[in-house]
Amino acid sequence: MPSIATKTVTLTVADHTVMAAYVAIPEQPSGAAVLVLQEAFGVTRHIRSVADHFAAQGYLAIAPELFHRTAPQGFEGPYADFKAVAPHCYAITQGGLSADLDAAFAWLNTQPGTIKDRIGCIGFCMGGRAAFLANALLPIKAAVSAYGGGIAPDLLHLATKQSGPLMLIWGGIDKHIDEAQRSAVRTALAEAGKEFSDTLYATADHGFFCPDRPAYNATASSQGWSAVDAFFKLHLCDFAALRASRSKPREVTHGSL
Prior knowledge:
CATH class: Alpha Beta
Number of helices: 8
Mean pLDDT: 93
Order of helices and strands: EEEHEHHEHEHEHEHHE
CATH topology: Rossmann fold
Helix content: 25-40%
Shape: globular
Strand content: 15-25%
Number of strands: 9
CATH superfamily: Alpha/Beta hydrolase fold, catalytic domain
Number of domains: 1
CATH architecture: 3-Layer(aba) Sandwich
Largest sheet: 9 strands, mixed
């Protein structure tokens, strides 16, 4: 695995709050960057490992602490106790979250060597919803939303504003996000004429990417990471392939694995 460097940076948000963010820096940068958006439990070891994963592939990665208004820096909630993180989740507003996303995206844009139109984002759980929001508010080149709760019905009006191609990933036995919600997201994006893919891992539960959660599903996670890595390589790094794909008719894919 290529070596990477990590650090914590402090960002000043538009509302004058201060937000810490975990940063993973590649040894051999590609010029592309990824905004990594946390689960409901904070910037956990899993979220930091996601940033490290992308840095090892040449992406500059940043994972902002979206609970910075209500929780201490470095906060990590226990996966077995949602009540411990619920007050922080419920305190987030769309306005505050939008300002946080803007601050993290702006930081990426100011870093030497970052190609400004090669920034992607990925989010899990609460972060999956945030990734959908980021892709509507910012010039994101490609976005991944993994089991993002609350996109339907709360953010469906932003389907028409999605900037980059969007990869939706769901768990088939996720009790938090049912088929009606997934279908509503697909329908809104299709009606808006947006480029997206939609994959359901039929035997996977909510949080299946995270090895620290009981819901971890090694098979679905491995398959999911292969798809995510190929998606970002195409849209953020593989310029020749990207040009070729743009010369073909738009395709919307649906799948169940």
